[in-house]
Each structure stands twice: as C-alpha cells, then as structure tokens.
Amino acid sequence: MPTIQEELDRRQLLYSLLMPVMNIYVPGLDKGKALYFLFVKTESTTPGGLPARPVLTSYYNSHHFRHRPFDPYNNYTSPTAAILCPDSHQSMYAQMLSGLLHRLEVLRVGAVFASGLLRAIRFLQLHYRSLAADISDGSLSFDQVSDPSIRSAVAAFLRPDPALADLLIRECGSGDWAGIVTRIWPNTKYLDVIVTGAMAQYIPTLEYYSGGLPMACTMYASSECYFGLNLRPMCRPDEVSYTIMPNMGYFEFIPCDESTAAAPATAVDLTEVEEGKEYELVITTYAGLYRYRVGDILRVTGFHNAAPMFRFVRRKNVLLSIESDKTDEAELQAAVERASKLIEPYGASVVEYTSQAYTKEIPGHYVIYWELMKRGEGERETPGAEILDMCCVETEEALNSVYRQSRVMDRSIGPLEIRVVRPGTFEELMDYAISRGASINQYKVPRCVTFSPIIELLDSRVVSTHFSPRPPTWMPQRHSLT
Fold first, then answer.
1. Where among 284, 315, 346 does a domain terminate?
2. Is 446 found in the same domain as 377?
3. What is the dihedral of CA 24, 27, 30, 34, to 10 degrees?
4. Given Cys at both, which of 256, 391, 412, 482 links 339, Cβ 3.0 to 4.6 Å?
C-alpha cells in the first residue's frame, strides 16, 4: 500500500486521541506504565528502490515513535531498542523481562492483536526459569539477548531481585495459569487488544489468563488507512463500535445487498448510511488509493452526534486468519491443489476438504481436513506419513508471504496440520447440514468451519494427522537497481 510522510502525521493525530478517550473511563493511567508487546518485521526493497514494510513497522521506525517526547499516559515498560529489534526472540525476551521488573507499575497490558498477547504468555510459560535467573542475578543472559543496544537499554534498570525471581518461579511453576496476568501484574486494570473480527476466537483464552479483565478495543485501522476510534472502549467485545474520523480519508460505503446484485453497486458517502444496514467499506486516501475496496464489512449501530458508528462484521472472502495473515478461498484452493500433486503418483486424490484456524494452542495454526480417494487397485501403495507431511510443506509454500513470514521470522503461526478423515465423512457433514435445514440442492461444502458440532464431527472421523516438518521458504525481497 502506498504511503507518504504526511500520512504518519495524520495517524499520529489519531493515536493522540486514544488516551484522552480512555481516561474518561479509566482515570489515573498517567500514574503507571503500559506493558505492550510491540514488534517490527523485516523490511524489503521494491525494484524502484522504495522501502517496503508493514504499516506498524513503518510507524515504529519513524521519527514520531523513535523520538517521541515523554508522555505519562504512554509510558511503556519496553525499551525502544527492544521494540525495534527485528529478532523476535530477543525482542520478546527483553520486553517480557522489562515488564516483569516494572510489574507493580503496570496498569494495562496489551499487544496489537489478541494473538500477540497470547504469544507473549506462551513465551513466559517457556522461558520463566531463564527470566527468573536473570532477575535474580541482575544480569541479562547473552544466550538470550546479544543485541548491544538492547543490553545497554536493559542494563539501565536491571538490578538483582531474588524476591521477584522467587515469586516468578512460584507463580509460573505451580502449573496453574488461570489469572496469571493479574497474579504477576496485580495492578492491571484492563487488556488493550483487538478482539473483533477474526481475533474474537481468542476471547475465552484471554479471559482465562487474565482472570476476566475487561478488554479494550480502542481503534479501527488497516494497512491502507486508519479509520477511527471506539468512543466506548470499555464495552463488551461483542458491543464494540467505531466512529470513523472523516479527516483520515474519504469514505464510501457499498450496501451489501447491492454489491452482490446484478446491477453495478452504488456507493453512498458517510452521511447517507442507515442504522442497522451492512456496507462494504471503500476508501480514497491522501497517499494515492482511489475508491479502494478494503474488504471489510461493517454494520451501522447508531450515531455519535451526527457521526455514524460501525461494528466490524467480517472480512469479505477471508477464510483463515491467525494473526495478521489473511487467506481467502481461492488461495486455499490453489494451495490444496498444489499439495495434492504429491499424492497423485500413489493413485490418490483429495475429493473434499475444509479447514479451521486452530487457536487452542499457542501459537495457533491452520488445520486442513482432507478426504482421500484411491483410484484403482493397480497403482502404487497408499501415500505414507512422510508424503503427507510433505503435503503440509507444499501447502505452506503456496500461501502468501505474510503467512510465510509469520511462520519463519515471527514464529507467530505454528506448523500447518493436515487431518485425513475416513471416506464418507463429507457426506456425513452434508447430512448434518441438511438435518439443520440446509437445502440439498444448494448445499456447498464450507471451506472453513467454526461451528463446534461440525468440528467435533470431523475430528471424530480423523484417521491420521500430519504436520509440516519444516517452515516454508521466505526471504525478504531486495532488488538491485543496476
């Protein structure tokens, strides 16, 4: 997505409004610190020599963030050097250590996405003993963090604290992780995470780890444009609505019933939307996007004065998402077709498939259910576990670069899993759908499933499971102009 320097100024203005709104509902946030797990990703270069990077990486590397003046309402525990380190392990270790050392000052805990906060908790589960050892000794292990700028920044406040180390071992080593956030950071008032859209799947897990802390979704934004604010940030996640700021771009809305009709869709502007109706968002930005269809479906829930408020309903055509990745039906279809070529020499083929974003483990991962068919008796033996493992690899290789970077560099997505189900499973799935009122003439196999009874049906028919034995290939693209 194209961006310009002035766009950072505009986005900084939106950031500056977050805490004044939050302070109405949670006063006193200037009296402590925020433990936010923030990360950058590796940059690349376009053929024309322009830097290409995720929007948040662009912001964190900007002058606005690097040289921001002290703000008591945005006083982070994480040193800037730790946030700007592209090595995700070193960055996470230093940010977690800093958060532990300032634990009694922490008033809010968060990450950009809910998945990012759960990833941090999983990191604590895996590394609390090493963190406790560093806290007890008052020194940062070189095996964990070798980056000189991080070591220098952490050294400014790292002192031996055996009592804190003992508390960490006691709380994390008990095996009981319910309410771990408030047990370690007892003054935490709320979680600051996005839990709308695909991130809603993480709400129960966050409630378990936080002991039921409220979750604040403060703003609505995308790589293309920042849109607006949640003016009631302490509402329940299923009640979150955003008020769009008209100075961030020019916004139009395609009524959903019209966008699927035979006639061309007719867009309306911000002043013409109607309460209760759903729209597809269209934007024209200062950075050069013209009438760009973002792919977000929004529902008008009411008005703040004369400004409409919108609830995020879903991403158009997106099937699977764990973190910042987005996989649509066409991409998943192409990946399955590519992977299934490996089993063709064995006289086998994929007759049906569906998928789910599995988030009961950290990190979450894609699960694809395959029903296989064997052609003839004269072919070679049935494909074995090693071949099906490689099908997982081929599937991942066919997915987009955001997914592969998350797997390789950030490790925020786990290895893809293929679950082979017994023959006839998808007929049973159709029978179940018809028993619930689906039309036999119009039934289509869902390419992604979220309904628990359907997942339970599929899992009860699994005959073998296979995981990708290695990460897919991913390298940042860097082009030479010579």
1. 315
2. yes
3. -90
4. 391
pLDDT digits (tens, 9 = 90+) for 79-118: 999 999 988 899 999 999 999 999 999 999 999 888 789 8
Last residue of a domain, one of 165, 188, 211: 188
How many Å apart are CA 139 and CA 151, to the nearest integer? 9
- Claim to verify: residue 168 and residue 122 sit in the same structural domain: yes
Do both 169 and 138 map to the same domain? yes
User: Are 310 and 326 found together in one domain?
Assistant: no
Element (H, E) at 280: strand 278-284
Residue written as tokens 């576990």?
385
Calculate the dihedral angle through the C-alpha atoms of 317, 237, 8, 89, rounding to the nearest 10 degrees: -90
For residue 381, the 8-state DSSP code is P
Return the SS3 of 388. Answer: helix
* Spatial separation of the C-alpha atoms in residues 149 and 431, rounded to whole Å: 60
DSSP symbols for 329-343: HHHHHHHHHHHHTTT
Angle between helices 148-155 and 88-101 (to 10 degrees): 0
Is residue 344 domain-shared with residue 269, that is, in the same domain? no
For residue 178, how many other CB atoms are within 10 A of its CB? Answer: 12
Tell me: do 462 and 400 sit in the same domain.
yes
Do 263 and 401 share a domain, yes or no?
Answer: no
Contact at 8 Å (CB) between 332 and 319? yes
- Expressed in angstroms, the distance from the first to the final Cα of the chain is 25
pLDDT score, position 375: 66
What integer pLDDT is reported at residue 376 of this predicted model?
56
User: What one-character-per-residue DSSP string does 156-191 give?
Assistant: TT----HHHHHHHHHHHTTS--TTHHHHHSTT--EE
Name the residue range of residue 174's domain.
32-188
- 215-254 tens-digit pLDDT: 999 999 888 899 999 999 999 988 999 999 999 999 999 9
Residue at 10 is within a domain:
no
Structure token pair of residue 414: 């786990």
Number of domains in the chain: 3
Single out the residue of 323, 403, 248, 315 nearest to residue 39, CA to CA.
323
Structural domain includes residue 43: yes
Q: Which residues pair with 243 in a beta bridge?
A: 229, 309
pTM of the model: 0.78
203 in a structural domain: no
- AA identity, residue 339: A
Residue 250, SS3? Answer: strand
Q: Tell me if 244 sits within 8 A of 228, measured CB to CB.
A: yes
The reply to whether 305 falls in a domain is: yes
Token pair 């020599």: residue = 49
Residues 341, 447: one domain? yes
